[in-house]
């Protein structure tokens, strides 16, 4: 399929029509490629958040009729507005993916209002019906993959002490910490998780300090929710601990220490978006999915993962893909002894209560602020 000349009119609806170069399927020399812009807050080879998006952009580069332009290390300030305008005015971008969480409000909203004939897709889940209709947000239920990592971690720990290096205590981060811990307790009811918050998405020095501090306290399996897991993975492996990755597959960094990981699957989603646009299908302004929708995935198991752990994790993963399995199923208490999900209550992935999660579950130690 040739994706040249995606219609701007249809981009307003989150969809587009195709103009084929000729009936023979050869694109006309006069037909320009459709240009798609990607903006990253960090390096696109960070073995983390930005690399996951860059892998998705790379998948689009393989599709005929598309031109992809990228800009990395763009801060969450009005600098992203300048980058967006440059991509539009100089490169002719008509579909933009500003990927960092902090880009959206006010920057993406401002640009979407300024360029109402273009389409803006933001990763992070902040769109509301009060926002421009030519903007949208997409995100994945990556806590499903974190839950699977937790199961593997629960089987793999010898001390029963797990560690989590986290950036900020916002709902999505807390949701990942809690899912990881609930998965671990499913495999090992005595497992506990110690969390250290660094304060921001990319702070390698503090991430290294947190990793070493957790290991000094007896933690022998670690994971994280920061932009670049490379620091945690390499430091933990150097200290003899095992790791579960995040964002992308970090096993090349620590082949013997890597157990599994929670990965984004933008390589599947971005081509899907473009194909939906080309087919005239509307992309919902608020787009979500998990393992079943192939928006997230699990890293392959490392050599240290036991057959028992693999079987249990695979069984639960199959149930999540099939649908109907609930991670946050009551009764669940927080780490202060308060019941946060009552017995008989299931909080499925679309439950709005999960979008505003502000607690850590029983078995997790670490302050939320």
Describe this structure as you would to a colleague.
The protein is of the alpha/beta class. The chain has two domains: 133 residues, Response regulator (Rossmann fold), CATH 3.40.50; 194 residues, 3-Layer(aba) Sandwich (Rossmann fold), CATH 3.40.50.2300. It is globular and about 55 Å long.
Sequence-ordered SSE layout with sheet pairings:
Blueprint: H1 8-11, E1 34-39, H2 49-61, E2 66-71, H3 79-89, E3 93-98, H4 104-114, E4 119-123, E5 135-140, H5 143-156, E6 161-166, H6 171-187, E7 192-197, H7 204-216, E8 221-225, H8 230-238, E9 242-247, E10 258-264, H9 266-278, E11 286-289, E12 296-298, H10 307-322, E13 328-329, E14 332-333, E15 339-341, E16 346-347, H11 352-355, E17 364-365
Parallel strand pairs: 1-2, 1-3, 3-4, 4-5, 5-11, 6-7, 6-8, 7-17, 8-9, 9-10
Antiparallel strand pairs: 10-12, 13-16, 14-15
Helix pairs in contact: 2-9, 3-4, 5-6, 5-10, 7-8
Protein name: ABC transporter substrate-binding protein
Pfam family, one: Bmp
Keywords: Signal
């Amino acid at each position: 399929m040739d994706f040249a000349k995606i219609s701007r009119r249809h981009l307003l609806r989150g969809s587009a029509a195709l103009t084929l170069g000729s009936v023979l399927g050869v694109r006309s020399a006069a037909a320009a490629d459709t240009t798609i812009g990607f903006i990253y807050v960090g390096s696109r080879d960070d073995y983390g958040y930005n690399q996951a998006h860059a892998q998705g952009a790379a998948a689009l580069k393989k599709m005929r009729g598309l031109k992809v332009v990228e800009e990395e290390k763009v801060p969450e300030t009005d600098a992203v507005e300048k980058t967006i305008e440059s991509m539009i005015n100089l490169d002719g971008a008509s579909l933009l993916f500003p990927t960092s969480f902090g880009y959206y409000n006010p920057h993406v909203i401002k640009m979407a209002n300024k360029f109402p004939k273009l389409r803006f897709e933001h990763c992070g889940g902040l769109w509301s019906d009060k926002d421009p209709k030519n903007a949208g947000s997409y995100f994945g239920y990556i806590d499903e993959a974190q839950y699977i990592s937790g199961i593997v971690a629960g089987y793999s720990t010898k001390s029963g002490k797990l560690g989590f290096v986290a950036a900020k205590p916002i709902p999505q981060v807390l949701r990942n910490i809690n899912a990881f811990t609930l998965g671990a307790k499913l495999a090992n009811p005595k497992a506990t998780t110690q969390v250290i918050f660094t304060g921001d998405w990319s702070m390698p020095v503090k991430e290294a300090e947190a990793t070493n501090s957790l290991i000094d306290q007896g933690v022998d399996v670690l994971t994280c929710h920061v932009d670049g897991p490379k620091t945690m993975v390499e430091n933990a492996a150097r200290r003899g601990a095992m790791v579960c990755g995040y964002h992308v597959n970090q096993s090349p960094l620590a082949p013997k220490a890597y157990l599994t990981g929670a990965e984004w699957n933008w390589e599947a989603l971005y081509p899907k978006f473009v194909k939906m646009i080309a087919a005239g299908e509307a992309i919902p302004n608020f787009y979500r999915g998990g393992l079943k929708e192939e928006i997230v995935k699990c890293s392959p198991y490392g050599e240290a993962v036991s057959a028992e752990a693999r079987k249990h994790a695979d069984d639960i993963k199959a149930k999540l893909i099939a649908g109907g399995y609930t991670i946050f199923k009551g009764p669940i208490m927080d780490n202060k002894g308060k019941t946060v999900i009552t017995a008989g209550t299931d909080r499925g992935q679309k439950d709005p209560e999960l979008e505003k999660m502000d607690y850590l579950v029983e078995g997790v130690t670490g302050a939320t602020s």
